[in-house]
Design goal:
This protein is of the alpha/beta class and about 400 residues long. The protein folds into 2 domains: about 200 residues, 3-Layer(aba) Sandwich (Rossmann fold), CATH 3.40.50; about 120 residues, Rossmann fold, CATH 3.40.50. The protein contains 11 helices and 17 strands. GO terms for molecular function: methyltransferase activity.
Length: about 400
């Protein structure tokens, strides 16, 4: 059920209040917020998709600041050649050419997490890089890596630093904003008149299937190329250039600005209206998600049953939200003896009642079967498991 505190909200793109339901599910948060109904609607006027009703903004703020399961808290393996090191480099390669005409400036990365993107930005000596991140853990990790990062929200910098930023970076941020139009309008006041906005959000035309769900409690806005372009132009950004080939098409990445000088030679073309394509994508997603859950239950259930019969010592790799959702399908404590995770901050703690160890402990603990509780970079995780084991360890994935 929708909690009594949930609030219906208008469309952030056009302000409309008429909408039609697209999708509904129930998600675990793994926190004191509890299980939450997620209702996705589409604006009847402009076609933008968003969650409504939804919990109040203070609930979201507490969630992002306190839990170790929120997006900004997730441990990223940034070693050379890893999934995230390649992704950070891809983002930097798209942004940097837009800065060529500037010899100096300030890049502010809002919601910077552990600072992976800031580290990947190779800028001339006249440039400075800063970050702000609501998660205490993630911001501390960034500072430990030598980055200028403070804990907080972008509005904490106002009004003192209004008009001081040359590039405002918002990677995997805008989809989380409770009131995106108002909050982004406040954030962009940090920009100089000729400042640039660098944005990356999930592409709802290609929603990724996962046990944790593309349509989640955290993501309250669901952008397509057209709705993101319309959203930014409504905020006064007349020039919007999209990256033509972000990773696997699952992201929308763009640079936006008000000063045409920064966009000389760039192809600027408004995306076509895609509201019908969005409805089709969400309908297919709902069907595919049902099949995914059925297949995952069979796959994981068969692995657990076989390992029990063989007397294996089983570990789950991943002390995160994916495992919280997996626990709803299978009692993790009845099927595994411990959890493995590459995040040093989680090692030595407990998760879902099980001890958390690093992969370096696999041999010492006698682990001979590992279930990877993740959708992404499973090849990297499997390689990590085998690298730390001197004897055969069977590795099973949740997904094909």
């Amino acid at each position: 059920m929708i909690p009594a505190a949930a609030q219906a909200v208008p469309c952030a793109v056009c302000g409309g209040t008429r909408n039609e339901p697209l999708y509904r599910t129930r998600r675990r948060t793994g926190t004191a917020v509890g299980d939450v109904d997620v209702v996705v609607v589409q604006c009847a006027d402009c076609g933008f998709a968003f969650n409504s009703p939804r919990l109040g903004i203070e609930e979201y703020r507490r969630y992002y600041s306190d839990t170790n399961l929120a997006s900004g808290q997730v441990f990223r393996d940034n070693r050379p050649g890893s999934y995230y090191s390649r992704l950070f480099a891809e983002r930097a390669a798209f942004l940097v050419p837009f800065l060529a005409r500037r010899s100096s400036g300030l890049v502010l990365d809002v919601g910077c997490g552990g600072g992976g993107f800031l580290s990947a930005l190779d800028l001339p000596s006249g440039w400075r890089k800063r970050g702000i991140e609501p998660s205490a853990k993630a911001s501390a990790s960034a500072r430990e890596n030598g980055l200028d990062v403070v804990q907080g929200f972008a509005e904490d910098l106002l009004p003192a630093e209004a008009g001081s930023v040359d590039v405002l970076s918002l990677i995997s941020v805008v989809e989380h904003l409770w009131a995106p139009a108002d909050e982004l309008a406040a954030m962009v006041s940090l920009l100089r008149p000729d400042g640039l906005l660098f944005i990356e959000v999930p592409n709802t035309l290609f929603p990724e299937l996962s046990l944790t769900g593309f349509f989640s409690f955290e993501h309250v806005s669901h952008f397509t190329p057209h709705s993101l372009w319309r959203f930014l132009t409504r905020l006064g950004f007349a020039h919007v250039v999209f990256d033509p080939a972000p990773t696997r098409g699952i992201y929308l990445r763009c640079v936006a600005g008000r000063d045409p000088a920064s966009f000389e030679g760039a192809e600027i073309m408004p995306p076509a209206d895609d509201r019908d394509a969005l409805r089709g994508a969400v309908a297919r997603y709902a069907e595919d998600e049902a099949r995914l859950l059925e297949g995952l239950e069979r796959r994981v259930g068969a692995a657990f049953a076989r390992w029990r019969a063989e007397g294996r010592k089983v570990a789950i790799y991943g002390a995160g939200l994916h495992t919280v959702h997996l626990d709803a399908l299978y009692d993790i404590r009845a099927n595994a003896t411990l959890v493995l995770d590459g995040d040093p901050a989680k090692q030595g703690t407990t998760f879902l009642g099980l001890p958390v160890h690093g992969p370096q402990d696999i041999d010492r603990l006698g682990i001979d079967a590992v279930l990877i509780s993740s959708q992404r970079f499973t090849d990297e995780i499997a390689a990590t498991v085998h690298r730390h084991s001197s004897r055969p360890v069977e590795v099973e994935r949740c997904y094909d």
